[in-house]
Amino acid sequence: MRHRSLLVLTTVITTGALTLTACGSRDDAGSKDNSGSKKTVVVIGVDAPLTGSLSALGQGIKNSVDLAAKTANKNNEVPGIEFQVEALDDQAVPASGQANATKLVGNKDVVGVVGPLNSGVAQQMQGVFASANLAQVSPANTNPALSQGDNWGKGEFKRPFATYFRTAATDVVQGKFAAQYLFRDAGKKKVFVVDDKQTYGAGLAAIFSDEFKKLGGEVVGTDHVTVKETDFSSTADKVKSSGADSVYFGGQYPEGGLLADQIKKTGANIPTMGGDGIQDPAFISASGEANEGDLSTSIGYPVEKLPTAKQFIEDYKAGGYKDPYAAYGGYSYDAGWAVVQAVKAVVAANGGKLPADSRAKVVEALGKVSFEGVTGKVAFDQYGDTTNKQLTVYKVEGGKWVDVKSDTFNE
Predict the structure, then answer these.
(1) Fewest C-beta atoms under 10 Å: which of 155, 157, 158, 166?
(2) Residue 2 has pLDDT above 80, yes or no
(3) pLDDT band, residue 37 (cuts 50/70/90)
(4) Distance between CA 183 and CA 166 in Å, rounded?
């Protein structure tokens, strides 16, 4: 796998100056607090696709965690502690994510990790973090098995790893929400379901399909596409001949955008709907045909419309980040801030110092974290899942994603 060096700006509290340091590097000299005492460096790891087709999302994750660390330092959120960030690129490849997890575990200053983006990558990282009692908080993973075990679909819930948390709602919530909207609000009764054979896409498509059929809808056909391929004409032809009035795609925007484009080129003037994986401007730009009417769901409410996100948006802009915070920026900031708050609780309980078993203590503290974050109330249930189950449906109008319905999901 190819890596690249990433640079971030680290605020030095005592001088207010900005110094350029390699992302994840430790300044052994350390900064000092107001009393002149040397601060203890605490590192928040980040794993995300920083290059490749999903880098727009990955960079937003990295930058948002970086902003959380800078804010904590600026506000002296945890007296005696200086937060730094080490960000690693997984390129959305599970094996790379696992290697990154091993590297982060090997850095003794890392007390928590934010990421990854992809559920399939997370599956390869969880065990590595658990073996080292290192907390992991994903801002984007939605596969239910990560927190509730492989038999969750049978009603058997068992948390596989106590070190795993997430600020994103699961696909159980997202898939059902999408099916309810497409059937009840959009009035579609005959859907063709396609997935990319990946953990996220296939799981989401299955949950959607089950709920759509329970509501009285019909799945008139199914097919699979392969990630990084570009010719989906055979699938598009199947959709056209099926008589479907809609398409549901379980996957990411690089394939989703091309699929929607090629379906419309067959003359099938029907909407393509997907999950948060396609809710990106690149989905629209990938298509040569107009995407008007295509739909997506996304976890949470639009950040720009949340009163709780106003400061985050202002600070992110002031931070001068080259890339936008994208779909998961708010959830990434909240994930990073959850780690900060856990460290704060652990340090306070140990007389103002970081204990030797800080990793295990941070995991325990994360389970009790509760605060008003960028995306609303941030807290975790007994499985490490977010208690915030707000979702939004987006629709392509005028060449842009426009939110058309936001609601709190209820069974």
Answers:
(1) 155
(2) no
(3) confident
(4) 29
Whose CA is closest to 249, among 193, 287, 292? 193
Residue 125 in tokens = 């990282």
Nearby residues of 363 by Cβ (< 8 Å), 6 or more positions away: 133, 134, 135, 162, 163
Cα dihedral 125, 127, 131, 136 sign:
positive
* Helix, strand, coil share of the chain (percent; to 5): 40, 25, 40
H-helix or E-strand spanning residue 279: none
Residue in 75, 124, 129, 61 with CA at minimum distance from that of residue 96? 124
d(CA 181, CA 175): 10
Residue 261 tokens read as 């484009």
Q: What is the pTM of this model?
A: 0.79
Q: Residues near 46 by Cβ (< 8 Å), separated by ≥ 6?
A: 61, 62, 65, 66, 85, 86, 87, 88, 113, 114, 115
Identify the CA nearest to 169 among candidates 376, 382, 391, 405: 391
Are the C-beta atoms of residues 163 and 135 closer than 8 Å to each other? yes
Please report the pLDDT score of residue 32 as a whole number: 64
The pair of structure tokens assigned to 268 is 């099938």
Report d(CA 172, CA 142) in Å as an integer.
Answer: 8
What lies within 8 Å, CB to CB, of 67 at 6+ separation is 312, 315, 316, 319, 321, 333, 336
pLDDT band at 379 (very low <50, low <70, confident <90, very high): very high
Of 232, 207, 233, 237, nearest in space to 221 by CA: 237
Q: What is the DSSP letter of 209?
A: H
Burial class of 356 by CB neighbour count within 10 A (0 to 12, 13 to 18, 19+): exposed
State what percent of residues in the chain have pLDDT above 90: 83
